[in-house]
Amino acid sequence: MLNHDVLLVILVFPSILSKYNVFQPRTELEVKYGSFSEELRLEMLEESRKMFYHGYDNYMKHAFPLDELNPIDCNGRGPDYAHPDNININDVLGDYSLTLVDALDTLAIVGNHTEFKRAVKLIVDNVDFDKSNVVQVFEANIRLLGGLLSAHLLIEDPNFPNLTPDWYLDDLLGLAHDLADRLLPAFEQTATGLPFPRVNLKSGLPEDGRTTTCTAGIGSLSLEFILLSRLINDPIYEIYVRRAVKNLFKYRNKATGLLGNVIDINTGEWQGKVSGLGAGIDSFYEILLKSFIMFGNEEDKQMFEQSYASIKQFMRRGRPQCNQGSGLHPLYVNVEMESGDTATSWVDSLQASFPGLQVLYGDVDEAICHHALYYSMWRKYGCLPERYNWKLDAPDVKFYPLRPELMESTYLLYRATKNPFYLHVGRDILYSLNNNTRALCGYATVHDVTDMSLEDRQESFFLSETVKYLYLLFDFDNPLNKKSDSYIFTTEGHIFPLSEKFSGDSWKQEDDLFYYDAPKDFEPSVNSSMFSPLSSCDRISTETRFSLPLRNQYLQQIFAAFGVS
Prior knowledge:
565 residues, mainly alpha, 3-stranded antiparallel beta sheet, 20 strands, 46% helix, disordered N terminus
């Protein structure tokens, strides 16, 4: 029996029959990806639920109140006090039950009201930020501050009933306020307004003298800091982050409009001049657009659109159009910020989130192409290597720490297109994670994608993001999916409600740091109409909805490039 939507299109638009060959024999890829049964969807939903609880229950049993789970040895880990310079651990872990805080809103999304309320109580009773631990401002902001604010707002959200503990008196908001105050010293002693990368949660700025930080570390704090300002009616947090973003954007190159990836916060001089879409810079672009969506400040949108025009002009390689024409599959490369010349021959796994941002902006065709490259890479290795060298066709950095970026883009592309192709991608990701990373007590980091050896770490974002996006992909009836235009995801996958009470220029007369003219000293030379967002998903093409999102010949091309079929 024909799908109702397909039948409607045929009756109303009979001319598409010849264009899209509705009744012609389907290609092998169209057969493979063209449908996804309800029975299979429900099976994947249940498998996603099991995945979450295998990670979560083992963390609570073997690791809580420590920050993270070691899923192979079945124990927990906190800061590496013996090696203070081990920033791979100490930037993130601060002895504050990180995984539980980060996973709070995932508990709400999977519908476990009882465990959500128990977890809130455990956090209120056990988490204390008054400890002499040096942590990265960026990580503490996105994982902890975002997790606390999201859970606090879910408690008040009628779309997620039965989450409110009968004793609750804004306790999570109080913890968020305390944490944010401990992060403020990073902003208070720089001539540029750009924050120091780290703070000691007890004493303020650390004595290590480090003054360099990445672009994402400066430019990705807005959602959480501004939301806190508006929840507690104190503009100071918003003042600091808006000044930081405004000043950071001023340091972009005037010829290309591009930013580097590492900057000295005292001098404003770029120490790393590579511009790309991956580690060190990725979430800067993301938060510009999301900040505009959440708070309505036009300057955020203008900064994003200028940046996106530069990205398209200088970073994009391959054929001009995703789904037509000839040439190599489109690829966004790392470039020199001052010239736009190719700077490296690798891309990294964090760039896999950018298709999701392109969906949010409305550039869905580009998102489809961009996503297909990373999905092909996943199919080749069973996960994403941290860095992939596109010139050598091999990984440069071989580990995979259970990152969520490809799953995030997959979920958002499915919500935009409703194409079953993306349900198949989600199933492939779920199977790969279960087959390659499932350990006795959770899910482990892949040490080397070429031999699938594991290392003993389950990062908090696995439960906060990776599993959350998997679960939401298959849970069509989730309150979040039913009201998807009422929420936005932070860069850590936390959900914030879109509300008029958070939007607007509430302190316009109080501090002109919020309100500045968008810089006019750079104008992209690319046709600006290329970057106008879609007004509605109704403009998704019929072919994208009812056939492969990437046409058969182009999907075959990118699969062949990675040696998969």
